[in-house]
Amino acid sequence: MTYDPGNIFAKILKGEIPSHRVYEDEHTLAFMDVMPQAPGHVLVIPKKGSRNLLDADPQVLANTIPVVQKVANAVKEAFDADGIFIAQFNEPAAGQTVFHLHFHVIPRHEGQGLKPHSGKMEEGAVLAAHAEKIRTALKG
Ligand code: 5GP
User: Fold this and answer.
1) What spacing in Å lies between the alpha carbon of 49 and ligand 1's midpoint?
2) Is 3.30.230.10 the CATH number for 8-139?
3) Would you kindly state where each structural domain of the chain is located, as residue ranges?
4) Backbone φ and ψ of 46, nearest 5°
5) Positions in the chain whose pLDDT score sits under 70
């Protein structure tokens, strides 16, 4: 249960792998999930590496949750959502596939189901348009 700094989100943080970023501050980055479970699915990650919530520095959690809240409100507005689903998985048995702590922020609409977790890759242009809507809501 150690942190591997070669994981894909660490590469996104370093800019080695492209992502559609919606928010960044000193401690935190938020970007579009490439296999969204619903349009507007965002991942919020701390910049400081931990494998998941179980080994995270509590101060990192204290820095990250206000950003989860900020992004959740922006996603709700941008996608006119009825609700927001926040998900966070710890270890493979719980569904974790990328081993850098992250929070899923997923808009929900009454009567509409979710697509599968880590399902189908979305078109880059669609992710770019969704990221722009969320950035606009974050400014408002
Ligand atoms: P986990 O199962 O670890 O909670 O979720 C990992 C999430 O990362 C999945 O929802 C998956 O779609 C997403 N993901 C996997 N690889 C990439 C990637 O290279 N870029 C982005 N933006 N998301 C990714």
Assistant:
1) 16
2) no
3) 8-139
4) -75, 150
5) none
